[in-house]
Design a protein that fits this description.
mainly alpha, two-stranded antiparallel ribbon, 13 helices, 4 strands
Length: about 325
């Protein structure tokens, strides 16, 4: 209970004085004191009437407009996350007229199914040799930028992870995404906004497993996955890998393995609830389209095997002479 410079004020701490409330009184060494809540005083100071409060409200009103203007100028100079990702895609496909102007994140999410891997950038050899992707990582971890700008850059990293070979670099993104998720929670960002980032962290091992396993192991990996798998990105790689595996079906056992894995995918998709996050919705829509395509391809393969087996049990007998005609005998 150390006194302050003003002897008429005492600071009380500890469990012995927890019963005191605002306006309460206590007598110490014959002197009566009235309790004042310091937290309440601090709260009132922030909103005290005066020129400071007026100026603060003015700054808050102007901050959003100024931030949008600075972000627009940054994009024009090619320094913002939107401009960087657009330049990344433009280098991949210089002839695509869609990439001539800077696109916003909402545009890329809307056309998520039509974004193709940046195969010409050499990012498969060493991710951080690519200046643009490294710049996106710097946007995410640099606290000088507003949290919305950093989240935009993090979402662009997720879109890059959609390309299977880039998923080999998930460990490099792990610390970056973990940091932005923690800071986003402290800033009061909605859980639905952070969910795609958190799912990459939660299901990192599943994501690495499905993108790095051998093609023949894909059905076994899907069948042996955990029941609580809820990552749309992992589901996307499931159906995408199964689609490639359908091209390699040569035996009845191959068909049965792919069919069983596809049934597991279908059962997981029906459990997914609608998600308000635009990126999650776009991924789920693409997963559903891939699943329907794989299911149709499996049915075609099954019909081919049944027809082949039927033909193997049919013996064609064409006797000599026109008077006999053609006869077919089943055995």
């Amino acid at each position: 209970m150390p006194p302050t410079d003003d002897n008429s004020i005492l600071e009380l701490r500890g469990a012995a004085v927890e019963w005191l409330g605002s306006g309460g009184q206590i007598t110490i060494q014959g002197v009566e004191y009235e309790y004042a809540d310091s937290d309440a005083d601090d709260d009132s100071i922030d909103d005290a009437v005066g020129p400071g409060r007026t100026f603060g409200k003015l700054v808050k009103r102007m901050a959003a407009s100024v931030e949008m203007f600075l972000s627009f100028c940054s994009d024009l100079l090619g320094n913002g996350p939107d401009a960087i990702f657009t330049r990344l895609m433009r280098r991949n496909d210089p002839l695509d007229s869609r990439y001539r102007r800077t696109k916003r994140l909402s545009w890329w999410i809307k056309d998520l199914a039509y974004i193709f891997p940046p195969i010409r950038l050499g990012v498969y050899r060493n991710l951080y040799h690519n200046r643009d992707i490294s710049r996106l990582v710097q946007f995410v971890i640099d606290r000088r930028y507003h949290i919305s700008v950093r989240l935009t850059a993090a979402y662009y990293l997720l879109i890059l992870l959609k390309f299977s070979r880039l998923c080999a670099f998930v460990p490099l993104f792990h610390d970056v995404l973990s940091r932005i998720c923690q800071e986003g929670s402290r800033h009061g960002i909605k859980p639905s906004t952070l969910r795609p980032l958190q799912e990459v962290l939660t299901f990192k091992e599943d994501l690495m497993c499905i993108t790095t396993c051998d093609a023949k192991e894909v059905p076994a990996v899907i069948i042996g996955s955990s029941e609580d798998m809820a990552s749309s990105l992992v589901h996307y790689f499931w159906v995408w890998s199964l689609g490639l595996q359908c091209l390699r079906i040569h035996t009845r056992s191959d068909l049965e393995a792919v069919e069983q894995a596809n049934q597991v995918v279908g059962s997981r998709l029906y459990r997914l609830a609608p998600d308000p996050n635009p990126l999650e919705c776009a991924l789920k829509l693409e997963v559903q389209k891939w699943y329907e395509w794989v299911d149709g391809d499996i049915n075609d393969k099954r019909m081919q095997f049944e027809m082949r087996e039927f033909m193997e049990h049919i013996q064609y007998i064409i006797p000599c002479g026109t008077e006999y005609g053609n006869r077919y005998r089943a055995i």
